[in-house]
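Exercise 7.
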Amino acid sequence: MADRGASALSLPDDWPAHPDPILVLNRMGSFDWDLDTGLMQMDAQAHEVFDMRADEYDDHPETLAKRVPPDESRRLDTAVSQALKDGSENYGAYFRIRRRDGTLRWTHTQGYIRRDGTGRPRRIIGIIRDATQELGESAARRDQAAQDEARRWQTSVVELTTAALAHARTVQDVIDVLKDTHGLVHLGATSLVMGLVEAGRIRLVAEGPEDSFVPGTRVTRIDEPYPMSEAVRTLGPCFIESPQEFAERYPILWPHITDLDITSAAYLPLIVQARPIGVMGLLYSDRYGFTSEERNILVALGSSIAQSLQRAMFYEQEMDLAQGLQQAMLPRTIPSVPGADVAVRYRAATLGGSVGRDIGGDWYDLIPLPGGRVGAVIGDVQGHDTHAASVMGQLRIVLRAYAAEGHPPATVMARASVFLHELDTDRSATCLYAEADLSTGVLQMVRAGHIDPLVRHTDGSCRRVTVPGGLPLGLSAEFGRLDYPVGTIELDPGETLLLCTDGLVEQPGADLDDGMRTLGALVATGPDDVRDLAERLIDVADERGGDDDVALLLLRRRGPEHPQSGRRLQRHVAPGDPGALTEARHMIRTAVATWGAGERADEIELVADELITNALMHTEGSAVVTLRAFTGAERRLRVEVEDSSSALPRRREAGDSGVSGRGLLLVELLTDVWGVEARGGGKAVWCEFVVPDSG
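Solution. The predicted structure, written as tokens, is:
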């Protein structure tokens, strides 16, 4: 059987007496180790590798011990023994030798084991060479690869941090990005501190590790002996490379932070346009010093962070102004309304993008009106910016003015649409205006492109009220369609009217009808108190999020313990229509008798007839006669005659005939209280009679 080692290396039997010239050219020595005798012959090149003269080597491997340190010798013996035992044909190993001058040199050996027919190792033929340059180059390559990897990793962290900072909108967002797992802490820092420069002082906004706040450093002066102050004062980075340096340079601060195990720190001024706006400190607990490359990276990051911080500060300033504007545009307080419980809420949208988009044009309003009536408004100006809030404020004011002038709901809405159209803006608005007579529960509503209201009944059920509508404000005037049909419902005691903007209804992936049904179910199962119900609805809107504002107005008509109307009758009387006048008089006579006016029946009929006659005689339009009966602490009957003339009635002396001029004298004499209210382009003259209880 042939030697197992023959296939590994074909050499003459007297090798290494005639070494291959290739080995010589490559500065490789050779050896031939006879395992039976223990002698190992080496050629001249091998002697040179071991830094031994020929006369110093006696062919015994033990002689090499003075060149091979013990640890290296044991490692080499282990490699050879393992190869001999496990039947290997060759082995290789790197080890160090000590030359005459005491220096250590790396050496590499490769041995080929030749065995007999039984597999017993008999001879090892091999090469040996100086590997110092090889390993040095390899180590250099590894070091370079490690540096390249570190540089790529640092660049990755910088890129991730910069990308994340691009989405930071507030100062807290910037701090959160830097503390995040992809932030600066991954550059090796244990924690981060940050301060903002304000009026010659530094206000701390990020404190570093938990429970690490140093008393007296919440606000510090720039001239104080602190590292953050120094970085701001000098406009240059402040690198601290050891605890000893920290203690020497900042003896006031160091005793308070010794428990944090800080070994080094870097404080970077955050500069924008040559002006410091803040300072950031990175604290380390496992490193000493900074390389020039690390310093450059941190300074570059400081510049990027400064830009993001400035954007965040501008954003917060703009938001403060915008929210202040919006709060100024919304009513500061909601007046108390006799006969009703009212709750209002507003929630701003949370939108990304440009500064100022967290505000919008949603609004609510409650307008006290004469005669115990109240106007409820909900609206939404197109857009989410300060311009939308500004337009909203102007619309709210004109709607309030038109309603207070006494205009009917349709006229209020039409005039508001004309106003918005004539305003120098490209915005439109949706709106719903409800005028409620809380004594009777009658609600007259007009809708300009807005969503319908909801009514919650006393049994807890909730329904959507379909209100006929017109075009949104601004568009109706543009297209000449200013007709706003009026929808009328009655709100019973204990029932609640809900007006809201579409931000409370619309949900991603669902249509408006589904949203209205969901809202109706939420209202039906909500608390009875309007304030608690409003809070519940806004909480749900907060949980859901969304990219639209929410405005909400709830009005609950109080129960029967408060004075209210049990009856209401109304008749329209056109001029020159004797039939209508006769019907109005018959209505009054019948109602007075039915409602038990008793001995005051004649007075009521006489005053009502006088008011109707005056309206028809002294105006060019028709008259609307309304009778209401009130119950409560005292029974009252109210007569109201509305006409289209803005001229107020005045008391006049009777003429020679003794017939004309006594109308108001008669009203004043026979009624308990009377008055005049402006109603749009006209007026309403009203009077009330206290009617004794017939029981």
